[in-house]
Amino acid sequence: MRGGVAENVSTDAELVERCLRDRKALDVSFRSIYDRHAGAAWRFLRSMVGDGRADDCLQETFIRVFRSLDRWDRGRPIRPWILTIAHRVAVDALRASARRPAATGLTEVAAPGGAETVPAAASDREVGSLLDAAVRGLPERQREVFLLKQVEGLTFDQVADALRCSVRTAKTRMREATDLLAATLRRRGLVAGGEAC
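Given the sequence above, the corresponding structure tokens read:
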């Protein structure tokens, strides 16, 4: 309640139920689901497939979400489920094009090892570009775990569900990703030689 007026904020589960049972409420309810979760899906997709294909992949993701609403487990958060679908769309797009993604846009991700390891002379833009390139250079399996865990903030259980692997595998891939990033950032002078991520 704000200012004496009750807010009408629906949960994701309520929105999905409305989409499934009431065709008249479908546009508004599904738009609300889209508005809440499209940003996270787009960031993930852009990091996986690049700017040029992210919009198309986002559209495909939400088409698949819409078609699968009745299969979403109401006992689980919807965002990891949507990101699972986004992951499948990204993998399909990468396989179809058989080329590396163009850009990640991860400038908001902190450099592994902490900000104090970044040389004072480097601008934020330069650091962001170097970090983008380092993340883009990760092998696909390590990159997707890194993005889901570090950028989207999923738990290892949710990452494992999204990628259809064990939690142990997700943790191993995350460790490999951070080791590879640390090595790349050391080579580029962003992390001192003895520091680890």
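Residues 106-197 form a domain with the Arc Repressor Mutant, subunit A fold (CATH 1.10.10.10). Try to locate this feature in the token string yourself.
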